[in-house]
């Protein structure tokens, strides 16, 4: 993307609108995305800082007046400079607190979206982290009215302990910071500075409680925190021409600080994930944006679970279609009639590939609904193809027999066989046709059956020739008739054998298909369990840190509460869920396996069962 585009427009009436152009661009991004959003008060150098992160002097538009400049949320997708195969998505948000706008509700939505969409959230402010700066972050303490985790919270209260699992890393960027980083005469780091600003106060007065509430929320919701301070990049009037100035004109300390900030953000920002640990690609990111904004527009509070479910259903449907199209395209490339072995081999390969394609793309497929639908669709398509292959085999065998027996047919019409010794001649020619037919390759799965029908249809013809053959005695004629019956019975045996072998192969292949499904399901289960464990492990680590800080500051009760959350997380991680799921996968694979016996009817035809009337016709057929 050469330039940033508007992702979410902020309409004059305060409503939000997702821009189609941006969604279109995201649809083309199949890579996982690392999303860095910057939010904060208006006119604090947010857009400028993001351009630094993009490694460009221009990009996100800066304003040089006192008027708020960026409107809505802008997006810039760039190849990630540090991680091959990843896309860096930078989100520039409209400045908060613009008095002209006077709409704090709209501000709250912008902030909530920045939280929901990013994997790293940079909060930008100017001066120092003082009480005023903290108060500007009141959106954090109001977040539970703007973001829900679950569609239905049990007791009507949002369980905000869950936020920390899914919220982004939090970075506080303090601009125009000109003070010395010292506390009580001791040099401290930027992170110490932030943590000291977030320290709780003891006491039970309203002032103390107000003081603590934002700090508690910040610490609890954003367990991974970092602080960067920046001196002013230039002094005086040059500030308004910042984007045109070369690096050499900037304060060296600012340059060093900006480099440190960019290094950290690019190195530490994670791929955006959603509950369950599913990595988000550009395409999925687009559907998240759409789902959140649509919910806000409808007057409701965006809910993570709902958005992820909506995103999963879109993606699973697409995964199903993609996998089926792959299977059908590959199977459609087969030349019919094909021998069964060739068909089975192709089905085996393409079914496994289709499954893999589906597994790679699908996620949160509750009840394996989409997986089942895929298997059903493959089964239907496979059944159709087996039927087409039989029809093609029948057509080509019939055409072949017609060609091979054309000369014999003419001789019959010309009365060549209606003379003494004609029957012997007739038999010789017919046997030659059978021999030539058997020698011809690529006849497909119905060769013996069509040959049986051919021979049966020739029986009355043979009897006519036999009856008029004056050279043969009545006893010889009886013997010839018996021989013919025996030959027909032998041919019927061959047909039955042909069918038996084919059914056996189909059934054997069912076991192969089953094993393939088990293998792939198990791999998926292991991957999903690992994602969930990683998600829990990350949360555990930060909760432990927080607990230690609370103990050090003497807040035993809070540390105890954290202890309960920590115990739950530990249990979640060590749970044998993985094994349970593996067992479930095995059971499930059975229901997902194609039952090939459904393809094999009484008469051995390999396609979906016929209607009742058709079935009657068939069973009524006698040779
Ligand atoms: N004092 C100061 N000014 C800066 C800094 N960085 C950028 N500016 C200037 O501040 C003005 C606003 O910068 P932007 O990056 O547009 O600020 P913003 O926060 O995106 O503003 P809004 O989009 O209106 O919210 C521009 O003239 C910049 O050149 C900084 O670190 N300190
Ligand atoms: Mg801006």
Structure description:
The structure is a single chain. With 623 residues, the protein is α/β, with parallel strands linked by helices. The chain has helices spanning 20-27, 46-54, 104-117, 131-135, 138-141, 163-166, 190-198, 206-221, 252-268, 282-297, 304-332, 340-361, 369-404, 406-413, 422-439, 447-457, 459-468, 474-552, 556-574, 577-592, 612-620, and strands at 5-10, 16-18, 33-40, 73-79, 87-93, 120-126, 169-175, 182-183, 186-187, 225-229, 273-274, 278-279. The strands form three sheets. Strands 2-1-4-5-3-6-7-10 form an eight-stranded mixed beta sheet, sandwiched between helices. A two-stranded antiparallel sheet has the order 8-9. A hairpin with a 5-residue loop joins β1 (5-10) and β2 (16-18). α13 crosses α16. It is elongated, with a radius of gyration of 38 Å. The protein starts with a strand and ends with a helix. Residues 601-623 have low confidence and may be disordered. The protein binds guanosine-5'-triphosphate and magnesium ion. Magnesium ion binds at residues 46-47, 69-70, 92.
Give the topology:
Blueprint: E1 5-10, E2 16-18, H1 20-27, E3 33-40, H2 46-54, E4 73-79, E5 87-93, H3 104-117, E6 120-126, H4 131-135, H5 138-141, H6 163-166, E7 169-175, E8 182-183, E9 186-187, H7 190-198, H8 206-221, E10 225-229, H9 252-268, E11 273-274, E12 278-279, H10 282-297, H11 304-332, H12 340-361, H13 369-404, H14 406-413, H15 422-439, H16 447-457, H17 459-468, H18 474-552, H19 556-574, H20 577-592, H21 612-620
Parallel strand pairs: 3-5, 3-6, 6-7, 7-10
Antiparallel strand pairs: 1-2, 1-4, 4-5, 8-9, 11-12
Helix pairs in contact: 1-10, 10-11, 11-12, 11-13, 12-13, 12-18, 13-15, 13-16, 15-17, 16-18, 17-18, 18-19, 18-20
The protein binds guanosine-5'-triphosphate and magnesium ion.
Magnesium ion binds next to helix 2.
């Amino acid at each position: 993307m050469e330039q940033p585009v508007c992702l979410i427009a902020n309409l004059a009436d305060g409503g939000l609108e997702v821009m189609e152009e941006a969604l279109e661009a995201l649809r083309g991004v199949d890579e996982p995305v690392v999303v860095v959003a910057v939010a904060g008060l208006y006119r604090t150098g947010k857009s400028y800082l993001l351009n630094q992160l993009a490694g460009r002097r221009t990009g996100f538009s800066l304003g040089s007046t006192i008027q708020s400049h960026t409107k809505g949320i802008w997006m810039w997708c760039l190849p990630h400079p540090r991680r091959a195969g990843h896309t860096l998505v930078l989100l520039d948000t409209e400045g908060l607190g613009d008095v002209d706008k006077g709409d704090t509700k709209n501000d709250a939505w912008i902030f909530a979206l920045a939280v929901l969409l990013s994997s790293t959230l940079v909060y930008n402010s100017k001066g120092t982290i003082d009480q005023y700066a903290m108060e500007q972050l009141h959106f954090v303490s109001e977040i539970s009215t703007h973001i829900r985790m679950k569609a239905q919270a049990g007791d009507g209260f949002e369980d905000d302990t869950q936020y920390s699992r899914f919220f982004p890393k939090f970075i506080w960027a303090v601009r125009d910071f000109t003070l010395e980083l010292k506390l009580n005469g001791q040099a401290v780091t930027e992170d110490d500075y932030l943590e000291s600003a977030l320290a709780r106060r003891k006491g039970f007065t309203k002032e103390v409680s107000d003081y603590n509430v934002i700090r508690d929320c910040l610490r609890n919701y954003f367990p991974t925190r970092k602080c960067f301070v920046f001196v002013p990049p230039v002094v005086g009037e040059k500030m308004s021409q910042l984007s045109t100035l070369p690096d050499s004109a900037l304060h060296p300390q600012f340059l060093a600080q900006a480099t440190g900030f960019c290094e950290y953000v690019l190195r530490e920002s994670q791929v955006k994930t959603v509950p369950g640990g599913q990595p988000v690609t550009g395409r999925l990111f687009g559907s998240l944006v759409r789902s959140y904004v649509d919910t806000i527009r409808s007057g409701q509070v965006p809910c993570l679970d709902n958005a992820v479910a909506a995103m999963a259903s879109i993606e699973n449907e697409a995964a199903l279609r993609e996998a089926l199209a792959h299977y059908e395209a590959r199977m459609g490339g087969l030349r019919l009639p094909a021998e069964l072995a060739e068909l089975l081999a192709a089905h085996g390969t393409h079914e496994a590939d289709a499954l893999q394609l589906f597994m790679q793309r699908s996620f949160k497929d509750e009840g394996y609904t989409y997986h089942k639908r895929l298997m059903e669709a493959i089964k239907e398509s496979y059944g159709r193809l087996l039927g087409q292959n039989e029809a093609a085999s029948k057509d080509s065998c019939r055409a072949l027999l017609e060609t091979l027996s054309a000369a014999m047919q003419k001789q019959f019409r010309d009365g060549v066989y209606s003379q003494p010794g004609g029957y012997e001649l007739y038999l010789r020619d017919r046997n030659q046709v059978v021999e030539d037919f058997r020698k011809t390759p690529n006849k497909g799965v119905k060769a013996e059956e069509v040959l049986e029908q051919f021979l049966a249809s020739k029986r009355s013809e043979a009897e006519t020739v036999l009856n008029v053959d004056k050279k043969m005695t009545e006893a010889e004629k009886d013997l010839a008739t018996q021989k013919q019956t025996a030959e027909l019975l032998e041919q019927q045996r061959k047909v039955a054998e042909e069918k038996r072998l084919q059914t056996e192969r189909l059934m054997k292949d069912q076991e192969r298909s089953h094993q393939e499904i088990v293998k792939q399901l198990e791999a998926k289960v292991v991957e999903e369990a690992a994602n969930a464990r990683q998600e829990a492990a990350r949360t555990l680590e930060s909760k432990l840190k927080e607990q230690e800080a609370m103990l050090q500051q003497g807040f035993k009760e809070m540390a105890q509460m954290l202890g309960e959350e920590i115990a739950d997380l530990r249990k979640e991680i060590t749970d044998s869920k993985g094994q349970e799921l593996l067992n479930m996968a095995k059971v499930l694979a059975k229901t997902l396996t194609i039952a090939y016996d459904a393809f094999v009817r009484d008469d051995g035809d390999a396609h979906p069962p016929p209607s009742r009337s058709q079935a009657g016709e068939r069973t009524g057929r006698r040779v």
